[in-house]
Amino acid sequence: MSIAIRVEALSKMYQLGQIGTGTISLDMERWFVTRVLRKPDPFLKLAEANHRAVKGDSSFVWSLKDVSFEIEKGETVGIIGKNGAGKSTLLKLLSRVTSPTKGTIKLKGRVASLLEVGTGFHPELSGRENIYLNGSILGMRKKEIDQKLDEIIDFSGVERYIDTPVKRFSSGMYVRLAFAVAAHLESEILIVDEVLAVGDAEFQKKCLGKMEEIGKRDGRTILFVSHNMGAILELCKRGLLLETGQIVRDSDVGTCVASFLERDKHRQPSERSDKNGLLDLGRISINNEYSYQIDNSSPFEVTVHLAAKDIANATLFFIVENAFGQSVVHKRVSSAEIGHSVIDGEFRLHVKIPTLWISPGIYTMYFKTIAPATGWSGRAFSERISVEVAGQAEASGKAFMNPSVTWSMHPEEAKAKALLV
Known about the structure:
Blueprint: E1 3-15, H1 24-36, E2 48-49, E3 60-72, E4 76-80, H2 87-94, E5 102-107, E6 111-114, H3 127-137, H4 142-156, H5 171-184, E7 189-192, H6 201-217, E8 221-225, H7 229-235, E9 238-243, E10 246-252, H8 253-265, E11 279-286, E12 293-295, E13 300-312, E14 315-321, E15 327-334, E16 342-353, E17 361-373, E18 376-381, E19 385-390, H9 413-420
Parallel strand pairs: 2-3, 4-8, 4-9, 6-7, 7-8, 12-19
Antiparallel strand pairs: 1-3, 1-5, 9-10, 11-13, 13-16, 14-15, 14-17, 17-18, 17-19
Helix pairs in contact: 3-4, 3-5, 4-5
């Protein structure tokens, strides 16, 4: 496959507060060093990583720092990360909206980008006129736009207002028309930022379907930024995880999303409300090992250390969550049902699971205890572990559950005989 996007050592620095160095002499020195002597900017050495919640010592920050990757033609890549991680900066650099401080970008083909609501639209022009304007900016000829015009208007769903100046459009109508233009015009690379969040659920689903269609049918390269992990998993095959302006993971999208969610939760080993040490859930093992990998078609056993001081009528929970934080397994039992009305001492709590028919991927597993009696009322949590579920995946890759099923088909006797008459 040919390379559609190649990024090498890409960096972007911004200066906070005032523009310039603060004095004319330093501005002139900076200009002379960088423009005349062609030497590196001395102020780049002062720049710090972009930790938005932490006060730094310098007014220079790296929004992106030494980012390198390659994307093949026809790939659909999801770019994820927290606010301020550098996602939008990366897309602006790829779209040539701004220039990099350092590094190189090589693009093969025309780029259509949808970065902000109404990007490339003139507020005084009508929707129809803005279709031609936006298409021209993207390098399309009038004849090509004429051929796509009806399809664009129909997809946008704003036909009644298409001859109205777009300054009177709602933000949702802006996005509908802007996405319709970007998706239907013949560009080789489509870059979409979080703007789809403005549209309603029906339109978001329509947009995802369109991006999936053009990616598979037309072989177009798509870069998609979203905080909706469901949309990322639905559309993309590969993920790039950004953190403080650097790529910390470049992998298949499932692993990338799981890594992002794990980093984002900042979990503590124990979240108990017990301040007196009356109940504690400790480390988890699977099949007596601390290697957290299971096969989705094989039985396994999960064990956790439990210590308690005279806790009565406790309820014990075993929970497995998917990448969205949804419970795919949620089992509960009272301590009395397993022979301990009162828990006093140290124990090993075992859960035997014959088969866990969930689709391969990364899941979170943990135990929880609630004990509303005997002088203590509260709950305790074990550590939360990331478990890799291996096994054969469905070809569609769209289901949470992947049970072993037996297929058969038999003719109905009465109808079969009637057909023979």
